[in-house]
Amino acid sequence: MMEFSDKVLRWFDAHGRKHLPWQAGKDAYRVWLSEIMLQQTQVTTVIPYFLRFIDRFPDVKALAAAPIDQVLQHWAGLGYYARAHRLHACAQQVVNQHAGKFPEDLNGLMALPGVGRSTAGAILALAMEHRGVILDGNVKRVLARYAAIDHPTGSSAFERELWDRAETLTPWVRAGDYAQAMMDLGATLCKRHTPQCLICPVMEACKARAEGAPADYPKAARSKKLPYVERSGLVILDAEGRVLLERRPPLGLWAGLYSFPESEFTQEMDIHNAWQAWLPHNTSMQKMDYFEHTFSHYRLRMNLWKVVVQSLTLIADKDCLWYDFRSQEAPGMPAPISRYLQQGAWPLGKK
Questions:
Q1: Could you give the CA distance from residue 50 to residue 33 in angstroms, rounded to a whole number?
Q2: Is residue 154 left, alpha or beta, with left meaning phi > 0 and alpha meaning psi from -120 to 50?
Q3: Cβ–Cβ < 8 Å for 220, 152
Q4: Phi, psi (deg, nearest 5) at residue 294
Q5: What CATH number has the domain bearing residue 58?
Q6: Could you tell me which residue, 196 or 222, shows the higher pLDDT?
Q7: 109 with 155, same domain?
């Protein structure tokens, strides 16, 4: 009887993706970068970001030497910005502690910032041709259906059983092709809502298909209602139409990126009192519109207030800049802020 891995590899030889931009040359840097970008993000979205990133930071030494601002600028729009900070820290550790070479063992790779068990396995298999076990979202879906794993996603029992299955099924030969094949299988056939079971290479032994309900796997965890967080953002404009941006703290939401100055208050008087050290006396504030953005743990509503000033006393301990999106290169900004500025949703420089 043909083994699971043999069937997957035979399918990969005929149908697998072999021309993705990070597959060229089996380079550990490119594989690592792609794996970090692909976390929570689809391949079609990642490709243009990857190409721009590689063009600016062609190797790990270039990335390690770059200012974090430039890294964030090239990451902006991909979301989950903590990944960019860990990416930069990892590159610096590879350069400073490993002479610019990625470790070639699982424990050494997992000691790097932001490199977990699956990412380490992918680097070993895809770049170094060692046996490496991967378990990204696509592979989890394939294995959860193949074995009809009944534990809810995210539970420790679900993760434990998946890793046991992945370790058992991963072959010792062609581990890199097998890793790519499993990711491709999940992305192109074993899709979340429309699994194409009839052309799947492992359909005959798939327990979820035998039950007649492959789309019911993986079992969803009980959904939680996301809390609602309301904030106020100050769109402070000068007479030239430039907008004031403040760098966010290095940890937390949109870490290290430039955004509108914010306030936890929602009423004009409270906002003005909170920012009185900045805003000239009797500065008028105009209520604008708002935008909403959903994060993994809550939903943000940002109410926007327009303030036009002739001059502004910047607080010394604030990291701010005046930005003219019509003529300046954009600093690293969260995607919602960048989109709002590009829309030009207000008459610049007018009261």
A1: 8
A2: left
A3: yes
A4: -100, 125
A5: 1.10.340.30
A6: 196
A7: yes
Rounded Cα gap, residues 286 and 304, in angstroms: 9
Statement: residue 301 has pLDDT above 50: yes
β pairing state of 299-308 and 228-237: parallel
For the chain, report the end-to-end CA distance as a whole number of angstroms: 77
Q: List C-alpha distances in Å: 241 to 19, 177, 236, 337.
A: 45, 54, 9, 16
Asked if residue 240 and residue 120 are part of one domain, the reply reads no
Same domain, 170 and 254: no
Residue 108 phi/psi, 5° resolution?
-65, -40
pLDDT reported for residue 350: 37
Q: How confident is the model at residue 1 (pLDDT cuts 50, 70, 90)?
A: very low
Q: ∠ at Cα 145 (203, 147), nearest 5°?
A: 90
Instruction: Provide the phi-psi class of 332: left if phi over 0, else alpha when psi is between -120 and 50, else beta.
Output: beta
| Distance, CA of 131 to CA of 161 (rounded, Å) | 20
Residues 203 and 54 reside in one and the same domain:
yes
Confirm if 245 and 320 have CB atoms less than 8 A apart: yes
> Which residue did the predictor score with more confidence, 173 or 269?
173
How far apart, in whole angstroms, are the C-alpha atoms of residue 219 and residue 188?
Answer: 20
- Please give the residue range of the domain that contains residue 25: 4-216
Determine what percent of the chain is predicted with pLDDT higher than 70. 93
**Based on the structure, what is the number of domains in the chain?**
2
User: What residues act catalytically?
Assistant: 35
**Which string of DSSP letters, residue by residue, matches 222-286?**
PP-PPPEEEEEEEEEE-TTS-EEEEEPPSSSTTTT-EE--EES--SHHHHHHHTTTTSPTT---E
Whether 267 and 233 map to the same domain: the answer is yes
Q: What is the pTM of this model?
A: 0.79
Predicted confidence at residue 317, as pLDDT, reads 58
Cα separation of 58 and 70, whole Å? 14
Structure tokens at 160: 């434990």
103 close to 112: Cβ distance less than 8 angstroms? yes
Is 288 within 8 Å of 306 (Cβ atoms)? yes
| pLDDT for 272 | 75
The residue that leads in pLDDT, 310 or 138, is 138
